[in-house]
């Protein structure tokens, strides 16, 4: 009996031993499997991580241009935007010239036509602004030459309008000028030449818009109210001085004008009855209208909200451009001159200057940011650009040339 008990205890002990051994073996096996699983997981994570970085590196190479553009935009969003424009030349002229009222590049950009406060007309080098020749000498008693425009078809011909009511024909190859058109008792603030070079349009003190044959100087039509008829309430014409007139650069029959009567008008030279569209709002006091495709940009001589974009097809305001990074000033804005920047084929940048901001500004109208800034001490009256080159001047006795690229 005791022997049976001993055998039973031994068998039980052996079972317990085998059970413990089995559990130990299972534990070791489980841990081994777990370790192996962790190793595999780590390996997969490492492989996935390496793959991720390889993909990211490949994306960076493929999208380097996009990321560069993004970086540039990010930099511009900071108030202390680094000036992308650079001043190249400053060309001084005598204080007795009475300021620079007009400066215009020739179609090729190799010449600059300039008109001064004393009535002088000069030709300057397009690359550095240096003096080349004087076509008309100015006098202290003369009225200023307010606007210069080259004929798009002839690089050697430009026209200059004066406060004395004359439009001069100027030849850059022979260095001579002549009185081409006379408007008695008028001050001609603005002129422009059609894209095909066939027509000249003028506007000024008497609020009438005149269309001339550019070859013969013959007056084709006058768009204006009948001043002799005090009951004439026709709203198709300007009622106060015209300061800016522009032929459309594509639709050569269309003309855009603006002035003191706070209206922006579109004219069709084939329609004799007056303007075909009117937009109320902009107070134009200088060469502050430009057009690109169907969008018109205007600069008003007002304290705030001076830069505006208009749709010429609907004759409605698109938006008022207020640059986010422009510092506030007690001097206001008061724009005299605005132009689409010639170096931007997409029409996203404009040049603006006047008597309030204290600078010529290059403004991205899409991002609403000032991306170039040139400080001045007096009012800017004239701006022009040819490709990436910019010229500007005004009441300071200096013509400045800059570059924005």
Automatic annotation (TrEMBL):
<feature type="repeat" description="WD">
    <location>
        <begin position="235"/>
        <end position="268"/>
    </location>
</feature>
<feature type="repeat" description="WD">
    <location>
        <begin position="181"/>
        <end position="222"/>
    </location>
</feature>
<feature type="region of interest" description="Disordered">
    <location>
        <begin position="1"/>
        <end position="40"/>
    </location>
</feature>
<keyword id="KW-0853">WD repeat</keyword>
<dbReference type="Pfam" id="PF00400">
    <property type="entry name" value="WD40"/>
</dbReference>
<protein>
    <submittedName>
        <fullName>Uncharacterized protein</fullName>
    </submittedName>
</protein>
<dbReference type="InterPro" id="IPR015943">
    <property type="entry name" value="WD40/YVTN_repeat-like_dom_sf"/>
</dbReference>
<dbReference type="InterPro" id="IPR001680">
    <property type="entry name" value="WD40_rpt"/>
</dbReference>
<feature type="compositionally biased region" description="Polar residues">
    <location>
        <begin position="7"/>
        <end position="34"/>
    </location>
</feature>
<dbReference type="InterPro" id="IPR036322">
    <property type="entry name" value="WD40_repeat_dom_sf"/>
</dbReference>
């Amino acid at each position: 009996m005791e022997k049976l008990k001993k055998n039973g205890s031994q068998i039980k002990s052996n079972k317990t031993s085998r059970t413990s051994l089995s559990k130990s073996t299972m534990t070791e096996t489980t841990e081994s499997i777990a370790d192996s699983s962790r190793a595999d997981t780590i390996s997969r994570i490492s492989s996935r991580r390496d793959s991720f970085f390889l993909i990211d590196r490949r994306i960076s190479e493929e999208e380097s241009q996009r990321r560069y553009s993004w970086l540039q935009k990010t930099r511009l969003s900071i108030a202390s935007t680094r000036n992308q424009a650079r001043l190249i030349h400053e060309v001084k002229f005598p204080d007795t010239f009475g300021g620079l009222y007009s400066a215009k590049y020739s179609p090729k950009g190799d010449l600059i036509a300039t008109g001064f406060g004393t009535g002088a007309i000069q030709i300057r080098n397009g690359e550095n602004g240096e003096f080349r020749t004087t076509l008309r000498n100015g006098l202290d008693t003369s009225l200023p030459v307010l606007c210069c425009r080259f004929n798009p078809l002839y690089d050697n011909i430009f026209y200059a309008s004066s406060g004395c009511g004359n439009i001069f024909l100027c030849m850059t190859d022979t260095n001579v000028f002549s009185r081409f058109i006379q408007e008695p008792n008028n001050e001609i603030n603005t002129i422009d030449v059609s894209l095909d070079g066939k027509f000249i349009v003028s506007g000024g003190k008497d609020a009438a818009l005149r269309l001339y044959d550019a070859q013969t100087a013959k007056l084709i039509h006058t768009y204006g109210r009948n001043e002799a008829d005090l009951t004439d309430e026709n709203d198709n014409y300007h009622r106060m001085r015209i300061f800016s007139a522009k032929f459309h650069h594509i639709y050569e029959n269309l003309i855009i004008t603006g002035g003191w009567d706070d209206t922006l008008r579109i004219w069709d030279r084939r329609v004799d009855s007056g303007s075909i569209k009117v937009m109320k709002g902009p107070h134009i006091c200088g060469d502050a209208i430009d057009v690109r495709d169907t969008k018109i940009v205007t600069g008003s001589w007002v304290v705030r909200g001076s830069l505006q974009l208009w749709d010429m097809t609907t004759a409605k305001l698109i938006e008022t451009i207020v640059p986010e990074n422009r510092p506030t000033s007690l001097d206001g804005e008061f724009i005299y001159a605005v132009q689409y920047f010639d170096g931007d084929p997409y029409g996203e940048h404009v040049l603006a200057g006047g008597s309030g901001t204290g600078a010529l500004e290059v403004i991205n109208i899409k991002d609403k940011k000032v991306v170039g800034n040139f400080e001045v001490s007096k009012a800017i009256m004239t701006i022009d650009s040819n490709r990436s080159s910019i010229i500007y001047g005004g009441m300071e006795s200096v013509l400045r040339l800059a570059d924005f690229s």
